[in-house]
Amino acid sequence: MIAVLSLPFSQKAFPVVAISAGLLLSACSPSAGDGPNAATKVAFNEFKPLLETHCIRCHNTKSVFGGLILENRAKAFAGGNRGPSIKPGDAAGSLFYQVLDLPADQYHAMPATGPKLNEAEKKLVHDWIQSGADWPEGPEGQIKTVATVPSDNI
Ligand code: HEC
Predict the structure, then answer these.
(1) Contact 51/73 with Cβ under 8 angstroms?
(2) Cys staple from 79: which of 24, 27, 39, 84, with CB 3.0 to 4.6 Å?
């Protein structure tokens, strides 16, 4: 009987606690809510295919455009000629994101050639950086370098 009684109590109490905790969080944290800083958590594995498809061919140890190598976490976070371009938690302040929004004819617009990223892809990059720029060290975070023109194709 005691167990039966205590169940509805804890069910009632939980949402109240959750709501007050939520209010407290949104009052303290500027990134909570629906503002321009709002972001969905993006894990590295969700972001990785974009890097492989749109970026790595010009940012690897053989083609080091802009001094930026995106093959692993250490190199990517070290940045390129203009310094670190990924600032975890600050997409708007990250060069890595800013270059995606530049007009296509701009020298610094990325990708430098080929189609620009669409809105969903840009949002993925935004949310990945904003939610902490998850990128594991070691083999898990290694990006395979694909040569622009493989030698056996020539
Ligand atoms: C076709 C080649 C090419 C592709 C693909 C490409 N880039 Fe670049 N990237 C360049 C060149 C060339 C530069 C140097 C010009 C500059 O500084 O803007 C550069 C520079 C950069 C820089 C500035 C580095 C610094 O510190 O000065 C960033 C950040 C960057 N690229 C991000 C990206 C991202 C993100 C992608 C994929 C969405 C991408 N690039 C795809 C050629 C490319």
Answers:
(1) no
(2) 84
70 lines ligand 1 (CB under 6 A): no
Closest CA to 82 of 54, 107, 105, 45: 107
d(CA 106, CA 125): 20
Six-digit token pair at 106?
Answer: 């701009």
The number of beta carbons lying within 10 Å of the beta carbon of residue 55 is 21
Task: Express each pLDDT in 56-107 by its tens digit.
Answer: 999 999 899 999 999 999 999 999 999 999 999 999 999 999 999 999 889 9
Residue type, 69: I
The answer on 48 and 24 residing in a single domain is no
In the chain, the number of structural domains is 2
31 Cα to the center of ligand 1, angstroms? 28
Query: Where is average pLDDT lowest: 6-10, 40-44, 85-89, 120-124?
Result: 6-10
For the record, the structure tokens of 29 come out as: 């944290």
50 and 26 in one domain? no
- What separation in Å is there between the alpha carbon of 112 and the centre of ligand 1? 6
- Measured in whole angstroms, the distance separating CA 62 from the mean position of its chain's CA atoms is 24
